[in-house]
Write a structure and sequence with these properties.
By secondary structure, this protein is an all-alpha fold. About 75% of the residues lie in helices and about 0% in strands.
């Protein structure tokens, strides 16, 4: 480009700038701040999702632990439910005038078995736990009454079949007690996890309900294992 002496340097610079292509000019990205905020939001959402999944899975795992612990109780309860009718049948010939007592034992046994079957489907359900505890209390009471009556019948106490069944029943009662403790420990862990923040948000969102500990009886005296001395 030819430059005449009459043209000023400022004018020459303006003409050169006006002829520079727009593609050669670099401007700072206008959406840089927007991109950073979007990336932060996505990262935060991902962290929240990962945390929620982890908290949910932990609650499910603890709830399944309760089910496994009740399975150990259920095995021993089934064994006891099988032993009680045999014990009653063996005692019938000695307790012919105590039919109401024998019938009460069988009725309490059937009620407890039904409650156990209901709890088997929902081992962490507080209402099912309470129903089983009430049924177990009634069964323990009826068995205690039966064994108290046996003290007045020397022939019944001397019967070898009844003695063997009584020993098996006492052993089963002890195993139920140990299994119940493991169940209650699992329930405590589950309930503690539910009450902690921020896991409490997941509990409310997905409807996790607290469970209840399994109590065989109400009073301290009744909670003692059934003593069988024949």
């Amino acid at each position: 480009m030819a430059v005449t002496l009459s043209e000023s340097p400022g004018k020459i610079a303006e003409e050169s700038a006006s002829k520079t292509p727009r593609s050669a000019v670099r401007y700072p990205p206008r959406n840089l701040s927007m991109s950073m905020s979007t990336l932060f939001s996505i990262s935060l959402a991902a962290l929240l999702v990962f945390w929620a999944v982890g908290a949910y899975n932990r609650l499910v795992r603890l709830k399944n632990t309760i089910g496994n612990a009740f399975g150990q109780i259920d095995v021993q309860l089934k064994r006891r439910y099988d032993l009680i009718p045999n014990l009653v049948d063996a005692a019938k010939k000695y307790l012919q005038h105590e039919q109401s007592t024998l019938e009460a034992v069988i009725a309490a046994r059937n009620q407890s078995r039904s409650a156990s079957e209901a709890m088997r489907s929902h081992p962490a359900n507080a209402a099912a736990v309470t129903a089983l505890a009430v049924a177990e209390q009634a069964l323990s009471g009826s068995l205690g009454h039966l064994f108290a009556l046996a003290e007045a019948y020397p022939e019944l106490k001397a019967d070898q079949t009844i003695r063997d069944l009584s020993e098996e029943l006492a052993s089963t009662e002890n195993k139920v007690g140990f299994a119940r403790q493991a169940y209650n420990d699992a329930v405590l862990d589950y309930n503690n996890a539910q009450g902690q923040f921020p896991a409490l948000l997941i509990v409310r969102l997905f409807g996790f309900a607290p469970s209840a500990m399994l109590r065989a009886t109400e009073s301290a005296l009744e909670r003692q294992a059934v003593r069988i001395q024949l």
